[in-house]
């Protein structure tokens, strides 16, 4: 497996950009996503020159992933987690481009969002995007060990855990002081649990192995198997190598413990 | 006239009482069904736990074999604890039943059969004594058996 293929699998690009329900071709888009901005249909990211991203140069992919900006300078809705992908490293962008260029091209015309979503929704999206912090390409912390650094990158950039597990303030941007402390109303309006190491309300009593089991099989410490929103993420984390799952566990357990209403499984 | 009025009043009263009793009976039924459901699921979790403990060297093979044998039986009983009209929220308030269980009953049975066949495979693996095989079969049952069914048929009320 190439580095780009591994990165795409870890991020789960195929989960959103494939209309799995209707047996769509991989990465050809068309999956309907219910978002706070209305129903949108994910775009075709195969190298088809007419309907996919076959004409994109590396700079186009960089602008899309890091800044949410399309080649024609229109903006993507933050349902596409570009505020997280802002932290992608230059090497990873190059690897990802090589991987996407090598995919079979599929001709599938993108479905535009319903025109009704463009008025208020765009205002709301624009405010969120402006309010969001864009940290730029991720830099390792030289004081911390490599596993911690790898975990930080996987959690905050590639895995975009904060998209669901970090609460948002009234402008819709992430509340970074309460990073991963759970959200009362994440995607789909549902509550998402606190995954900081708080022993009362978070995953403070989960061992490294407990976290790794969840990421590998979706198995909680009490031997339930997740089926909600996390089940879709487990489809990505199950494809990681053990060292990367351990890195995620190391990083999560190092976070400041935050007390929160959004209790984790015990 | 008077008698017939009396009769109809009586009939209405009786009907109301019976309906009330029926409601109580149904509620008790629902409670019993939910209890059976949670007992079955928690039993499966316990069995899975002891098999995992075996792969980690924390439990012996005999225990794992008993648990795997239990799972081959209990997975076949899943549909029994979801009779029609038994939509309910779990006692911890975390999970609910998706209507698809009953509107797509055959698909639900397929999901059960899928889990049951993975439980059979897990028992074979445990009997082989090869922990590597047990780990693979365990993941397959958990993720693609239990987890896949939860994804389609279990409502997550609180993630």
Distance between the termini of chain A: 36 Å
- Quaternary state of this entry equals heterodimer
- The helical percent of chain A reads 25-40%
How many E strands of chain B?
Answer: 2
Largest sheet composition of chain B: 2 strands, antiparallel
Number of helices of chain A: 11
> How many helices of chain B in DSSP terms?
5
Provide structural commentary.
The complex is a heterodimer of chains A (266) and B (159). Chain A is 38% helix and 3% strand. With 266 residues, chain A is mainly alpha-helical. The longest helix of chain A has 13 residues, at 146-158. With 159 residues, chain B is mainly α. Chain B contains 5 helices and 2 strands, in the order H-H-E-H-H-H-E. Chain B has a two-stranded antiparallel sheet with strand order 1-2. Chain A binds chain B through residues 164, 186, 190-193, 216-219, 222-231, 234, 238, and chain B through 44-46, 48-49, 52, 138-139, 142-143, 146-154, 156-159.
Question: Topology, please?
Answer:
The complex is a heterodimer of chains A (266) and B (159).
Chain A lengths: L2 H9 L1 H4 L15 E4 L2 E4 L16 H10 L14 H4 L4 H12 L18 H12 L14 H13 L3 H4 L42 H10 L11 H9 L4 H13 L12
Antiparallel strand pairs in A: 1-2
Chain B lengths: L1 H54 L5 H14 L20 E3 L2 H4 L1 H24 L2 H23 E3 L3
Helix pairs in contact in B: 1-2, 1-5, 2-4, 4-5
Summary of the model, kept short:
With 266 residues, chain A is mainly alpha-helical. Helix content of chain A is 38%, strand content 3%. Chain A starts with a helix and ends in a 12-residue tail after the last helix.
